[in-house]
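Annex B, item 7. Sequence and structure tokens for protein A, then protein B.
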Amino acid sequence: MDLVGFSQDVFSDICIHYAELAKNLNVKHVTYIPMSALNGDNVVDRSESMPWYEGQTLLEHLETVQIDDAANLTQARFPVQYVIRPQTAELHDYRGYAGKITSGLFRKGDAITVLPSGETSTIDAIEIAEAHLDEAVTPMSVVLHLATDVDISRGI
């Protein structure tokens, strides 16, 4: 917030954009807290620079937020942490997307949608420690192979 002069209007615009993304991802509970990385405003102590914000600080929120321990098997999420492209003669066409399943269940043959691009493909293979699986579930760390070449990079 320090980069935008602690502007309430800028914060409101950011909240609107994130609310739209959360809706598209079917995320039901999102908390917005304006913070300053430079001075730590609203991280532990309330910010004097943002008198318009009356909500919790980040620490207050983290100490009180309720976390559902039940595994979510209906909304599959897989943040890509690494794209594996060995570029060797024996693996000249290998492309795997490595990451940890944060929710849901993935099966070989499942259709997937890449966000935010909206590109689609299907899961061609699921790999873990050089073994191939028919399915993988949260919180497994796996490598997914897709049937088509899709533009995916870390964090997308």
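Protein B:
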Amino acid sequence: MKIFPHTRFGWIRLSVLILVPALLFSFAYHRFLYMPGRSFTGELPPLSNQVDDLKDRLRVHVTKLATDIGPRNIAHEGSLAATVRYLNDVFHEIGYATSSQRFQVVNATVENLEAVRVGGSLPGEIIVIGAHYDTQTNAPGANDNGTGVAALLEIARAIKIQEVDRTIRFVAFVNEEPPYFHKPVMGSLVYARRCKEREENIVAMISIETIGCYSDEKGSQKYPAPFHLFFPRTGNFIGFVGNEESGDLVRQCVGLFRESTQFPSEGASIPERVPGAGWSDHWSFWQQGYPGIMVTDTALYRYDYYHTPEDTADKVDFDKTARVVEGLIGVVGGLANSKE
């Protein structure tokens, strides 16, 4: 049996067969999967008093949205208006003025709600931090997306007292869920189109989407193929996801997160066609040519109560969610300040 070639051509052919796949794998890894720093491993440190207080505030927000208000969409009369009133109250209590972008859907008027922290030296460079406040039809939406909205409010609170170079917009979007998902009246798409029409310089968009579920059990994390070959099968991490054009932003955000907090994290810049890659409001900004990423616990790939009436506040891991939000405060602060 001939194992090795006996001619020069044979050796060249064998080398090509070995090297080309290896080079392609290396190229793909560094283009799509490589992230700076290392994901945290081991036992999580005790919560600081600051993060413990943050945990309590996150719980208050999620409980208000998912328990007191409940399902939030046009089918539940008054639920969207009640949500906007609550968000307005919290933004105003923090010290922000707010503005609304109203538009018509069927026979209802709906709105995106915005609060702005104007930058100092680079006010024309804009970072959008967004989360959708609506829910799937009969879901109370504690995790999807009460956790994202709660994070939005608390990041805004922390940034309010920081000096920032770039302008940061905190936007609560309506109509992310079906039947409006990826449709012209999806709230974030309405907003992103206006940004483009005004020729605004959106340098980064972060969509905070379903960040409250974590598990240390092996096999608790699933993926669309072939990502199960590259990422952990334990769902104890927070994920950062962008398209290929947003790869630099994904890597920057993962690096900042790993610098600012001790919590497991993974990141990927992947083709838009991968199932789940564009399943939130960052997709709307991709359509307008802006860089955008999603921060997520991976939703249906981990969370059993996704889009169900059982998505209630008691299912949210507020301890770990608070750790993630503390890390995201570091990410936003890092993005907002220019590097000399």
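Comment on protein B: Residues 30-336 form a domain with the Aminopeptidase fold (CATH 3.40.630.10).
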